[in-house]
Amino acid sequence: MEILSYLFFPFVFYPIWGIFACFFVAIVISKKVVMKYGVAGATAASTLILLVFFTPVVVLSEGGNIPVIFPLMAVYLGYILNPLLDAPIEHVSSFSVTIIFAPVSVFMSIIVASIVRRKLLKSK
In what order do the strands lie in the sheet with 91-93? Predict the structure, then answer.
């Protein structure tokens, strides 16, 4: 796979570790935001971060026949380093995967913000 020459190998396994990373990031953001802006503010902040950095994107190899799923932050990194790559990014298709990921990230953000708020209120 020529397209993998610019990325770290763990990005290949994004469908496996991505959900855990999204959950952890939502927890961290909710802890910082939930007491000041409430559940709605924490949900909005964590959803925005999840959509900007962790949206799964299908990237095709140089020949266009090997699809691999990467997080959107890795594609941003690839576009920044594109002149330096051995195999530049040929085609990125994210619309079909984003339609599925957007409601999942909103739902995950709501649940995480509620859990974090409940834990913070119990600890007081």
Answer: 67-71, 56-60, 91-93
pLDDT band at 110 (very low <50, low <70, confident <90, very high): very high
Verdict on whether the full-model pTM lies above 0.85: no
Question: What is the three-class DSSP state of 12?
Answer: helix
Tell me how far apart the alpha carbons of residues 64 and 50 are, in angstroms, rounded to a whole number.
Answer: 27
**Cα 110 from chain centroid (whole Å):** 16
Helix 14-53 vs helix 72-80: angle between axes, to the nearest 10 degrees?
70
- Whether residue 28 is predicted with pLDDT greater than 90 in this model: the reply is yes
**Is the Cβ–Cβ distance between 26 and 50 less than 8 Å?**
yes
Q: Which residue has the tokens 């796979």?
A: 1
